């Protein structure tokens, strides 16, 4: 694949640098020699981010910070000054869904509008947006076995679409609309990861690692047949960096998921990676999960997905990276090791 001319001192605006993925994207960008301008909601968070990136081996002399909120117009034009590329990773990612779905949808969609429009005003060359498998693989026929591809979009009228899935789908749709309207569709790339796991950069377990944490801390007594398609955070970060300069990545979506597995298999990997720790072995039958779902809104949201293994066609991302994806078992084991090393369990 061809690379466009690039100068590694180029400045990248990275929204969501305080997040699990944002930290890894910053690390990959700094290691590749870029100057990173990370956005945080409050500058008070900058020291913590700086310290964790330094501890991970990054040269933080090329790291700077700006204050931006997805829900506020303040600062976006100033933040884009001197920026060649935008990496927009910030978006609310939560396990416990809010009563009001707009608490997720507004920052996701309005934040995408603010980030992309400011980037276009500033003449930013390429925008990489962190979308999600959530924008691809939901609301479809449960019986489908064919892998989901970049041509698929989540059907918001279908079953099992929750507020997070809606927020990511609407945000990505809005991103393509904005770029199309500006005649700049080829300057947007979306990375559409499944559930991201891998090593933690700080002491925040983040929503991503919570599933593994709950398997280790005794809060999950038995294993429902919840499906996960897992992908490694290091692969997702590297794809973000590559997508920024590969000509052929322009105007495309990159689904990324290594392989699907049920929660029981995740628990088996965690158990092996955490000798001496108690990890549940008991399977929870689907009827018990459905019964529980009568009383719990969050559980109700997943009953439609029980046992449904979805595959993602990651071939375009594998070509972009020029190598296979990290096996999901290694990503689960790395999260487990991080949680233990950082004394989070
Ligand atoms: P995370 O650790 O919770 O990070 C989310 C980031 O978004 C944080 O930096 C957070 O800032 C920022 N953010 C949230 N609301 C904001 C607002 N109103 N204004 C400014 N910043 C705001 O989650 P993550 O896993 O790294 O997720 C990063 C991206 O990957 C998201 O777009 C998510 O949808 C996507 N994604 C994640 C997964 C996954 O499994 N983790 C899978 C597919 C896609 P604060 O630190 O200030 O809260």
TrEMBL record:
Pfam families assigned to the protein according to its UniProt record, in alphabetical order: Epimerase (PF01370)
InterPro entries, A to Z: Epimerase_deHydtase, NAD(P)-bd_dom_sf, NAD(P)_dehydrat-like
Ranges where the NAD-dependent epimerase/dehydratase domain occurs: 12-251
Transmembrane regions listed in the UniProt entry: 12-34
Keyword check for Nucleotide-binding: no
The entry's keywords: Membrane, Oxidoreductase, Transmembrane, Transmembrane helix
Stored Gene3D superfamilies: NAD(P)-binding Rossmann-like Domain
Keyword Cell membrane: no
PANTHER family: NAD DEPENDENT EPIMERASE/DEHYDRATASE (PTHR10366), STEROL-4-ALPHA-CARBOXYLATE 3-DEHYDROGENASE, DECARBOXYLATING (PTHR10366:SF564)
Family from the record: Belongs to the NAD(P)-dependent epimerase/dehydratase family. Dihydroflavonol-4-reductase subfamily.
Protein name: Aldehyde reductase
Lineage, highest ranks first: Bacteria, Pseudomonadati, Pseudomonadota, Alphaproteobacteria, Hyphomicrobiales
């Amino acid at each position: 694949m061809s690379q466009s001319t690039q100068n590694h001192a180029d400045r990248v605006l990275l929204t969501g640098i305080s997040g699990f993925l944002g930290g890894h994207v910053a690390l990959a960008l700094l290691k590749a020699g870029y100057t990173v301008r990370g956005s945080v909601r409050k500058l008070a968070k900058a020291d913590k981010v700086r310290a964790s990136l330094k501890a991970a081996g990054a040269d933080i002399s090329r790291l700077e910070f700006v204050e931006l909120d997805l829900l506020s117009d303040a600062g976006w034009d100033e933040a884009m000054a001197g920026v060649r590329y935008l990496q927009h990773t910030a978006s609310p990612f939560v396990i416990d869904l809010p009563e009001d779905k707009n608490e997720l949808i507004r920052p996701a969609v309005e934040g995408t509008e603010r980030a992309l429009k400011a980037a276009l005003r500033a003449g930013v060359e390429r925008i990489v947006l962190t979308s999600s498998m959530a924008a691809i693989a939901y609301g479809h026929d449960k019986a489908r076995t064919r892998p989901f591809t970049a041509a698929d979009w989540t059907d918001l009228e279908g079953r099992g679409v929750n507020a997070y899935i809606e927020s990511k789908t609407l945000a990505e749709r809005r991103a393509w609309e904005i770029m199309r309207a500006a005649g700049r569709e080829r300057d947007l790339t979306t990375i559409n990861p499944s559930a991201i796991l891998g090593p933690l950069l700080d002491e925040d377990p983040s929503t991503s690692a919570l599933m593994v944490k709950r398997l280790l801390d005794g809060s999950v007594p038995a294993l429902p047949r919840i499906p996960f398609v897992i992908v490694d955070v290091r692969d997702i970060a590297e794809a973000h960096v590559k997508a920024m300069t590969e000509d052929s990545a322009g105007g495309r979506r990159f689904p990324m998921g290594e392989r699907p597995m049920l929660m029981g298999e995740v628990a088996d990997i965690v158990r092996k990676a955490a000798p001496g720790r108690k990890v549940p072995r008991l399977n929870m039958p689907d009827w018990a999960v459905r019964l529980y779902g009568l009383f719990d809104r969050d559980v109700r949201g997943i009953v439609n997905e029980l046992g449904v293994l979805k595959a993602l066609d990651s071939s375009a991302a594998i070509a972009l990276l020029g190598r296979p994806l990290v096996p999901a078992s290694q990503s689960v084991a790395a999260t487990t090791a991080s949680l233990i090393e950082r004394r989070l369990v």
